[in-house]
Amino acid sequence: MEYGSERKLLCTLGSRLWQRGFVAANDGNLSLRLAENLFLITPAGVSKGFMTPEMMLLVDERGQVREENGYRPSSELALHLHCYRLRPDARGVVHAHPPAATAFACARIPLTAPILGETLLSLGEIPVAPYGRTGTDELPRAIAPLVSRHNGILLSNHGALTLGDTPTAAYYRMESLEHTALIHLYARSLGGGVPLPQEEADALRLLGGQPG
Ligand SMILES: [Zn+2]
């Protein structure tokens, strides 16, 4: 099968999303860039915990399926393609609904307080994109102003989105984003985290190579 190892990688990362409870039922989607205008994306209507390599859809930059395999591409295909269009450096995009991150997305509270050094290194500031209905052009439009400067974004009343220079890096950012959201929740329950000094926060962001 063409692109066998890349197809397998999406299955492995999808399985991790499901095992960690970052998606329920058939939620979530992952994609990777094979070449400038060629991508693999997960299928619609399938649990990310039970995917097999032949289910992955090969699509071009206009979203046209290159090889029919009996599956439809994820309903968020336009969101993924928009990320690749705006971020030529991105080679992986992950969308999921991890509970703590999604709680912040539903409350529309960005994860911007510089209280956790690791987050500044791996993600920088995590903003909230305006609401856009899932599976429509509203969602790519909503993230457009943010995606050039951020590798992790909360989607209002919906979930989270991460990008990386490899699919695995995008996946790890989803883990870090959810971990960050949980720690922010716990810190809030203790009266709030103490922010790092601005110079230290900026230095960590710079060290992590974050665009924001
Ligand atoms: Zn979603």
CATH topology: L-fuculose-1-phosphate Aldolase
The chain-level structural class is: alpha+beta
CATH architecture: 3-Layer(aba) Sandwich
- Number of helical elements: 7
Can you tell me the number of structural domains? 1
Instruction: Please write the CATH class name.
Output: Alpha Beta
Walk across the major sheet and give the strand order: 3-2-1-4-7-6-5
Annotation, overall tally of beta strands: 7
As a percent range, the share of strand residues is 15-25%
General shape: globular
Q: Are any ligands bound, and if so which? A: zinc ion
- In CATH, the homologous superfamily goes by the name Class II aldolase/adducin N-terminal domain
Main beta sheet, described? 7 strands, mixed
The helix/strand series, from N terminus to C terminus, equals HEEEHEHHEHEEHH
Could you explain the architecture of this structure?
The chain is of the alpha+beta class. The chain has a single domain (4-207), classed as Class II aldolase/adducin N-terminal domain (L-fuculose-1-phosphate Aldolase), CATH 3.40.225. Helices cover 40% and strands 15% of the residues. The protein is built from 7 helices and 7 strands, in the order H-E-E-E-H-E-H-H-E-H-E-E-H-H. It has helices at 4-19, 77-86, 99-107, 117-122, 138-147, 167-189, 198-207; strands at residues 29-35, 38-41, 57-60, 92-96, 128-129, 152-155, 159-164. Strands 3-2-1-4-7-6-5 form a 7-stranded mixed β-sheet, sandwiched between helices. Helix 2 runs parallel beside helix 5 and helix 3 crosses helix 6 (167-189). The longest helix has 23 residues, at 167-189. The protein is globular. The relative contact order is 0.16. The model has no long low-confidence stretch (mean pLDDT 96). The structure holds zinc ion.
